[in-house]
Amino acid sequence: MQSFIVEHHLGEVIDVYCGGPDVFDGKVEACADNVLTLVKGGKYTHIAIDKIIAIWRT
Question: Quick count: other Cβ atoms within 10 Å of Cβ 14?
Fold first, then answer.
């Protein structure tokens, strides 16, 4: 999943679904060490790759 995100979504604005009500959105800033980093409004969200169920471009 990490290499897929880096190759196809680095710099893109995406939504990330982690189950239940957990949906995060932002620009893909980085993806390393099994952690996805999104940035939105100057704030960073760090998501464990193994918790991601689905991602899509917004």
Answer: 18
